[in-house]
Amino acid sequence: MEKIGNIIESIAHEKGLKLAEAKEAITTALIKTAKRVFVEDNEYGVDIDDKTKDLTLFQKVLVVSDEDERLEENIDDVEKYITITEAKEVDPDLEIDDELTYPISLDDMGRTAAAVLYRELEFHLQRLLEQNIFERYRQKVGEAVSSTVVRVDNDQNTFLEYKEAKAILPMKSRIKGEKFKVGDVVRSVIRKVFIDKKAGMQVELSRTSPKFLEELLKLQVPEINDELVIIHGSARIPGERAKVALSSVTPNVDAVGATVGTKGIRINAVSNELHGENIDCIEYSEIPEMFVSRSLSPAIISAVRIEGEKAIVTVPSDQKSKAIGKSGINIRLASMLTGFDIELVELGGGSSTAGSDGIGTQETTSNPDALKALFGDDD
User: Fold this and answer.
1) Of 28, 155, 204, 235, which cross-links 336 as Cys (Cβ 3.0–4.6 Å)?
2) Residues 258 and 357 in one domain
3) Torsion over CA: 279, 282, 286, 290 (sign)
4) What's the CATH code of the domain at 358?
5) Same domain, 124 and 9
6) Alpha carbons 81 and 244: distance in angstroms, whole number
7) Residues 145, 125 within the same domain
8) Can you tell me whether residue 254 is helix, strand or coil?
9) In terms of DSSP H, where are the helices of the chain?
């Protein structure tokens, strides 16, 4: 088979494959074809000359001693080994453990072999294409994408068309109250890429991930896209409320102001995309106490003390409900954003806590001595 190298280069260019990958796929297909057409137990190899572009299929035989027990495996048409005596008749320079090769004419393989080779080539090239697509999309995890709805099943899972991949937006990753129909263009973030044994490669999308909020902010706020404003973290209760921690790399840029935009135009555009989700923009601080205090906005905090993974926060009695928020949403988001278990201590009253997982509240008690300790009062 002459000039096969030119054909391989054409296939690689057409399919968007690397030349080495296309060569490997064709080599594998040829060897499998030879095993099916000739003798399955024999060893075969392929050589592609980069200069002449010619391809050679050959059978490999291992040179062994005249008394080697493995010679017994050479039965019927199987020929894996050759004695050193026979090998030297072919090439006097051969030694034990060398390989002797016999070229096989591809032109004599027949029409059946050609059909087998075609199927093998198609199979291995398709697997290679799928693997390349998988690796390419796996690198896109966390990126925002827009895709068109092609189907919604009975469980309200939404299937979308995204380039050459199958994408799915599970119901659990959809904001509460959202409904999509065929033809809708949906914006989401790539949550993960995986191989399903029946459906092949699939891309799972999400509209509830905090990463989706961050990607939307990047699209709406040039200062974030240009890395003049940095997002240090975000926390969401999808469709209800979110908090995002921001900082500026230059004093000339107000991180919160730039993100909110004139009359809130930028943050409102993001909120509308998130089904009306309220978004609190918070200035990040490397000082944990300051960061926790800001994260509990709009509540005014009296003091914060960090004890390991817990933040003990003192609030005036009239600020406690603001710090907790409706159904505990504010303290839960603050805990998720900062990573601290937050315990609220009311001046002259009890306390409430929220873990970094945002689950539950509990009541405890405090006393004047404890309050003095919170404020660092040694008098």
Assistant:
1) 235
2) no
3) negative
4) 3.30.300.20
5) yes
6) 69
7) no
8) coil
9) 4-15, 19-37, 84-90, 110-138, 210-220, 222-225, 255-260, 265-273, 288-295, 320-324, 329-338, 368-375
Burial class, 354, CB count within 10 angstroms (exposed 0-12 / middle 13-18 / buried 19+): buried
Confidence label for 134 from pLDDT (cuts 50, 70 and 90): confident
Where is the domain boundary, 232, 250, 283? Answer: 283
Count of structural domains, the chain: 4
Task: Report yes or no: 295 and 334 within 8 Å, Cβ to Cβ.
Answer: yes
| Model pLDDT, residue 107 | 67
- The CATH number assigned to the domain holding 181 equals 2.40.50.140
pLDDT bracket for residue 31 (50, 70, 90): confident
Same domain, 125 and 145: no
Query: Angle formed by the axes of helices 19-37 and 4-15, to 10°?
Result: 120
Give backbone dihedrals phi and psi of 94, rounded to 5 degrees, phi first.
Answer: -70, 145
DSSP state of 5: H
**pLDDT tens figures, 194-204:** 887 777 788 99
Indicate the residue among 184, 206, 228 that finishes a domain: 206
Predicted confidence at residue 20, as pLDDT, reads: 83
Same domain, 194 and 256: no
83 secondary structure, DSSP code: E
Q: Residue 48: which domain range?
A: 4-136
How far, CA to CA in Å, does 303 sit from each of 52, 290, 321, 333?
79, 9, 16, 19
pTM flag (> 0.85):
no
Q: Are strands 158-162 and 144-152 parallel, antiparallel or unpaired?
A: antiparallel
Residue 103, preceding peptide bond in cis (omega within 30° of 0): no
One domain for residues 102 and 14:
yes
339 to each of 33, 203, 308, how far by Cα in Å?
58, 29, 11
pLDDT value at 357 more than 70: no
